[in-house]
Fold this protein.
Amino acid sequence: MGLLIDNITYIYNEGSVMATNAIDGVTCEIPDGQFIGLIGHTGSGKSTLVQTMNGLLRPSSGKILYNGEDIWGENYDRRKLRAEVGLVFQYPEHQLFEADVLTDVKFGPKNLGLSQEEQERRAKKALELVGMGEEYYEVSPFELSGGQKRRAAIAGVLAMEPKIMILDEPTAGLDPKGRDEILGLVSDMHTKLHMTIVLVSHSMDDVAKYVERIIVMNNAKIMLDGTPREVFRHGEELENVGLSEPQVVYICQYLKQRGMNIPTEVLTVDEAAQAILKAAGKKESENSGV
Amino acid sequence: MFKSITLGQYYPSDSILHKLDPRVKVIATFGYIISLFLINNFTGYIIAGAFLAVCVGLSKVPLRFILNGMKGILFLLLITVIFNLFLTPGTPVFRFWKLQITMEGIVFASKMAIRLIFLIICSTLMTLTTTPNQLTDALESIGRPLTVLHVPVHEVAMMMSIALRFIPILAEETDKIEKAQMARGADFESGGLIQKIKAMVPLLVPLFISAFRRANDLAMAMEARCYRGGDGRTKMKPLVYEKRDAAAYTIFLAFLAVIIVLRFVPAGRMI
């Protein structure tokens, strides 16, 4: 069933002179099992949108349905919803507070009212998933490195075993190695745990490799929604709103302009390499033919 | 939780009061408050009230913003009035059970009420027309003579402006951490007092850590730009008195003179 966002609007400072529309008439569906990239420039409303998805922000108008139920309906348990729709905030390491990693990760399951053993089991499983073994259980989260802190914090949300996982810029401020680790972890959540993933980012390079569908937000509205290939066909529009296509697309476009017979609809470095090799190979064979 | 926090309730406008040097406003406000306690007759209060009304009019700040400042002291005002009304000895005017209202009580209570109301209005007016930064600059400038007595005026002013600058940042941070913990199922609303206090731990620990982190970063950034305290430091927008400031001082001194004359020249000797 998944999440259904039905024509929602969110207004900050409603009723005052400073009222601003952070989301303006957004409708979209997040079906079970999809891996979605939510892309937009800073201030496009993407962070606000994800906070409405698990009921942290109440839309000024419109409805949000989870498995067909209105999450702002009377008697709806939004704490339970937050266990099903996990949200990892930007810089999640800032939420760490316990004396050791294991206890911190157990905070989520504890709030769900689970038994000690179950809390422990989930926490350990989540830590294993993010690649943190037993040697980290007793360590203070404040002694970890930046990348480790972030993984511990993500484990804190994973331990609630949500069905939908929303990650708001999980790679912000990490070095390339840390970034690849986190993106690999997110990809694992999708392929191994079959979670529905919403990956918020402003970098096309980050998402192009993994996602099945891209939603582009601009000025509080959804601008484009489709498969990566469909979305990248609107290259110029994307650039007009300050977003770029993956770098490999630019390389291929440049090569094409220079006369190479090469498709520009590539998404990843591997695909681009294949395409370039193929085009180069053809050229060579053509040359040799002449 | 902290969304409603607004400090330095500055109301932007281009009135003459906004343009005045902040030092004029601070000194005049201070002087005005003193004058309120000098006055001992109703003629004085009428003059003081008229002066204040003119200032409010000049400020172009909507009246409701100024009256908003009164909300906070309404309770205090009520208590002051009631106590003065009933507990001042003198000629009884009205008696009810063991309580009596005296003529002196009525006079005294109304004087107290007027004083408090004027006091709040004039300080509210100052904060509405002066940005927190201007205010700190003014205090630093006014307090400069105290450096002779080894009072760290510049440092105190710097601390004040940093504190003011960080309030909105920390409020935003609190909101963010609160949401992040709520996303992990934290509950800040239900439960008794003890439970509510316990529920604050996941909020306060990250908040303190982030405050320290920001303080460290800021200190580092200041050192990197060779901050060495106030000695020889220049300002981007130095406070300079202009003609209108001199005019404002003159008008205020005239007001003060009238109040003092009213206070110390017996009413009988006046025309």
The interface with chain A takes residues 173, 176-177, 179-187, 201-202, 205-206, 209-210 of chain B (CB under 8 Å). The mean pLDDT of chain B is 85. Residues 55 and 248 of chain B are 11 Å apart (CA to CA). Residues 153-183 of chain B form the longest helix (31 residues).
